[in-house]
Design a protein that fits this description.
The complex is a heterodimer of chains A (479) and B (444). With 479 residues, chain A is α+β, with helices and mostly antiparallel strands. Chain A has nine helices and 23 strands. Chain A folds into two domains: 2-224, PmbA/TldD fold (2-Layer Sandwich); 234-475, no CATH class. The longest helix of chain A is centred in the first third of the chain and has 18 residues, at 71-88. In chain B, a hairpin with a 2-residue loop joins strand 15 and strand 16 (380-385). Classes of the chains: A alpha+beta (479), B alpha+beta (444).
Chain lengths: 479, 444
């Protein structure tokens, strides 16, 4: 396959084509899903191959992708990409342009401790069947599910600048949830939350200690049926890492994808309140807030050698001591903004175009443990485990509901609350951050499900976070 | 699908009577033009061939998919699956796969990737961009043509072909000055009905409204007029969440035990109508069941859940194959202009963004307005309003409909993910009282 990719690049290395790149992926996906204790489906899409060819001609991109790797199909795909660029250039006013970069030639092969694709299938099913059965043992639990997805992708990337890399990665995404009902109302609890993807193999599934947490989520879901709601209008919130990862994702991660500044995603994903003039001076958060994109972190789902336009992995400091410093960019957009490309141009499969995407997007650690932070909080709530999320077109006005909250009084947890809902304006919220827990609480939390783009793509990525406290947040929003 | 491949699928079914097979062979292609700032962003072509297979042995099942399948790769995977399936636990609730062998009348459909060539797309977009330029607006959006073929073959004798070639066009006009945005869309399988002049006329009308002052409004309850795509989006969320047989099984709908009861006012009728001439038509649902006209609410009375074969068996319900992909709401007796004129103070909402349920059982939801929110004062659209957040129960919205337009409008829907499909709904404008705006975004 490497030869095939190299041959295509050789064919595209002609003066009429300013730049071209070729990607090839083989993807394995396996999903297991139990509902109410029973296996509903076991699904696999293995050895799924695709190829994508992107060319820049007359200042306009053209792209074509295919799953058919026959010579006839590849020739057709190449011609289609060229034709798409040529036709597109007839409706193009601002020509795409970017600086050349030095080529990278490298290979990265990740080996998980327990390869989920070769482990004993019966053992794998039995592991989840056992958990699924345990979740059905309480009559107040009217619905439960257990799911797991296993992913492996081999990728070749090559471009006309001489870059040629290949890589292999493994990711897992396990989850369980219960729903308790008293006939009138339903409350759910998940474990380990919505940012539950990890780079690695089955060892990362075991690390979540599902069995140990089944009784906990059953009890919490049932307790929520009789729990009060938040009564205050405003409150101090400590946000747990699982949910804070999503808060960071929605209100900083997407907001600092620079393709949004230029309206490339207006049609679907939206814009951003961030403007180029804010770089270097806008107080995005309090001085404690340091946010970076780092595709060199091997434990994250956003790790890569080069992004999908040949930019080597790197760290970009997006917010430093609270000030907006950088953006997540493509080569084209970096040039428009006068920045160095941040290595964030990524596609989910080879037959999809690369887009500006988060890789490992992180909130830097502060100091101290979560227990210490709770002890140092006079009144407030500790909230975690996402239930609902929503943010506006400009990534400015957000509203989140978590499954559960714990009331804090004089530094102690004194009870739970149901459906804590909070609302905020992005910079006001991040400026209200007055504490971030330390390295001991910091971890990479991942997802398989970041949707963006047209045609749409769901991307694997990670967020490094530790729990943090935000002062005087609007809570108790109700329908 | 080549005849030899089909014969091999039938042979596998014949030779293995202790198993049941469900084969879905698909050949899918898209020509997808993204545009922004009145110019091309990307021209994308994509083609994918896949075979999705599910094998059943008693109450055990196993699924796999193969991209670009060959007879060799199929046989290898089937052999492997017939061994692996023995080790799987049973699903005691599974009874049988789809049994509906009825066929829809085959319809000839043009390949719209050919009908709507790239040259044509570029010429339409150039005309549209030129038309909005004098108003200091630029166009952003997508112009998509798909050509899809799916052949379904099963052990229960289903042998059905589904063909689609929908066109999806969505153009946003965005102000160079303040990013105020308005929207126009087209969705159909009939390329001849694409009328760029009428799209330009409608978009320019909206641009004229969008040139007024931008203001903010306080949170609170408002009388609102919802554009067809907005009421359609609320209703589809409600239908998929509260009216599905799976929600009944999951004890997550307040409609349990309410079939035949008056749920909403008599002015509300909702039909899942896959042959409606206004919208993209479907012959079958995803399982191959004949997709037929199914009333969901009739004069406010709850008539049907969406029932697939699995939940029909599990819950002892009658399968109807409805899937909520072709929702059509009744029209009323008001002219749209009249609805605006009769509003003393209110909001006109053009489009919605990022909705998510807070509590699906109660149908409480939050989300935002986008692409043109307007203040109505003394019967006129007077000002552009910043995008707003709403936190509402969809059941309250339907209960609070006070006026319904006498005309229906079609709008397309697609999530654009994977080998995506395109469907459409037909809805009128509606006026709704006491609509809860919970905050402003302070931006447009």
């Amino acid at each position: 396959m490497k030869k095939l990719v190299q041959d295509i690049i050789t064919n595209l290395s002609v003066p009429s084509i300013t730049f071209a790149d070729v990607r090839f992926t083989t993807t394995d996906d396996e999903s297991i899903y139990f509902e109410k204790g029973n296996l509903r489906y076991k699904d696999a899409s293995l050895d799924s191959k695709s190829l994508g060819i992107r060319v820049l001609i007359n200042g306009c991109w053209g792209f074509a992708g295919t799953t058919d790797l026959s010579k006839k199909s590849i020739d057709y795909t190449m011609l289609k990409a060229i034709s798409n660029a040529k036709h597109g250039s007839l409706f193009k006013r601002e020509k795409v342009d970017f600086k050349a970069i030095d080529p990278t030639i490298a290979s990265y092969m990740h080996t998980p401790k327990e390869n989920p694709f070769i482990m004993d299938s019966e053992e794998k099913i039995a592991y989840f069947a056992n958990i699924a059965t345990k979740l059905t043992k309480n009559e107040k639990i009217v619905y439960s599910n257990v799911s797991a997805s296993f992913y492996r992708q081999y990728k070749i990337y090559a471009n006309t600048e001489g870059t040629f890399t290949d890589s292999l990665v493994y990711d897992v995404l396990p989850s369980m949830m219960v729903m308790a009902s008293d006939g009138r109302q339903n409350y759910s609890r998940k474990w380990p939350g919505d940012m539950n993807a990890r780079r690695g193999g089955f060892e990362k599934v075991r690390a979540f200690e599902f069995e140990k947490n089944t009784d906990r989520i059953i009890k919490e879901a049932i307790d929520l049926l009789s729990a009060p709601s938040i009564e205050e209008e405003r409150a101090d919130l400590i946000i747990g890492a699982s949910h804070l990862a999503l808060q960071l994702h929605e209100s900083v991660g997407h907001a600092t994808e620079a393709d949004r500044i230029f309206g490339m995603e207006i049609s679907y994903a939206g814009k951003t309140f961030v403007k180029p003039t804010m770089l270097g001076n806008f107080q995005y958060g309090s001085e404690l807030v340091n946010i970076f994109s780092d595709s060199t972190l091997e434990n994250g789902l956003g790790f890569h050698i080069v992004d999908d336009e040949g930019v080597p992995a790197r760290r970009a400091d997006i917010v430093k001591n609270g000030i907006l410093q950088d953006q997540q960019t493509s080569r084209e957009i970096a040039q428009m903004l006068g920045l160095e490309p941040s290595s964030n141009m990524l596609a989910t499969h080879a037959d999809e175009i690369p887009l500006v995407r988060m890789s490992n997007f992180c909130l830097g650690a502060g100091k101290g443990s979560l227990d210490e932070l709770i002890k140092n909080t006079e009144n407030g709530y500790f909230v975690d485990f996402t239930k609902t999320w929503s943010i506006d077109d400009n990534r400015y006005n957000f509203q989140f509901t978590t499954e559960i909250g714990w009331k804090i009084k004089d530094g102690e947890i004194v009870g739970i609350v149901k459906e804590p809902t909070y609302f905020g304006i992005t910079p006001e919220f991040w400026n209200s951050c007055d504490a971030i827990c330390g390295e001991e609480e910091w971890d990479l939390h991942g997802t398989f499900h970041c949707g963006k783009g047209e045609p749409g793509q769901v991307k694997h990525l990670s967020h490094g976070v530790a729990p943090a406290r935000f002062r005087n947040v609007v809570v108790n929003v109700k329908a | 699908m080549q005849d030899t491949f089909k014969e091999k699928l039938l042979e596998i079914i014949d030779k293995n009577p202790s198993f049941k097979f469900l084969f879905a062979y698909s050949d899918w292609e898209t020509d997808f033009l993204r545009f922004y700032r009145s110019q091309t962003n990307y021209n994308i072509s994509k083609r994918a061939t896949a075979l999705n297979t599910t094998i059943y042995k008693g109450k055990k099942s196993l699924s796999f998919s193969i991209t670009n399948p060959t007879i060799e790769s199929l046989l290898e995977k089937v052999d492997e699956a017939m061994i692996t399936i023995d080790a799987l636990p049973e699903d005691p609730d599974f009874v049988d796969i789809e049994k509906d062998t009825r066929k829809a009348e085959e319809r000839i459909k043009a390949n719209n990737i050919e009908q709507m060539s790239l040259e044509k797309k570029i010429s339409y977009l150039t005309k549209l961009a030129d038309a909005v330029e004098p108003y200091k607006f630029k166009i952003y959006g997508t112009f998509i043509c798909n050509n899809e073929y799916t052949h379904l073959i099963t052990s229960n004798g289903l042998d059905k072909i589904m063909r689609f070639s929908p066109i999806y066009f969505e153009a946003k006009a965005v102000s160079d000055i303040n990013q105020v945005t308005v929207l126009e869309a087209f969705g159909s399988e009939n390329a001849l009905s694409f009328d760029i002049d009428s799209i330009i006329k409608s978009l320019i009308g909206k641009i004229k409204n969008a040139q007024s002052e931008v203001v903010d409004v306080d949170p609170g309850e408002y009388e609102v007029i919802l554009a067809p795509r907005c009421i359609g989006e609320y209703i589809s969320y409600y239908t998929w969440s509260c009216c599905s047989a799976s929600s009944l099984d999951h004890k997550n709908t307040l409609l349990e035990g309410k079939l035949g009861e008056q749920i909403f006012p008599a002015n509300f009728t909702l039909i899942d109508d896959p042959r409606n001439p206004m919208i993209v038509n479907f012959d079958y649902n995803g399982e191959g069941h004949l997709y037929e006209k199914t009333p969901i609410f009739e004069n406010g009375v709850f008539k049907n859940f969406l029932v697939d074969s699995y939940y029909a068996n599990k819950l002892n319900m009658t399968e109807n194959g409805a899937q909520g992909a072709c929702l059509v709401m009744n029209t009323g007796d008001k002219e749209f202009d009249e609805m605006i004129k009769s509003t003393k103070k209110g909001l006109f909402i053009s489009s919605l963004h990022y909705m998510n349920f807070i509590n699906p059982k109660e149908s409480s939801i939050t989300g935002l307005t986008r692409d043109g929110t307007f203040l109505i004062e003394d019967g006129k659209l007077t000002k552009v309003v910043n995008n707003l957040r709403f936190t509402v129960k969809i059941s309250d919205i339907i209960n609070n409909i006070t006026e319904i337009e006498n005309k229906a409008h079609t709008f397309p829907q697609s999530d654009n993910y994977g080998q995506f499909s395109i469907n459409s709904f037909s809805m009128p404008h509606v006026k709704v009282k006491a609509f809860n705006i919970s905050s402003s975004t302070k931006t447009v």
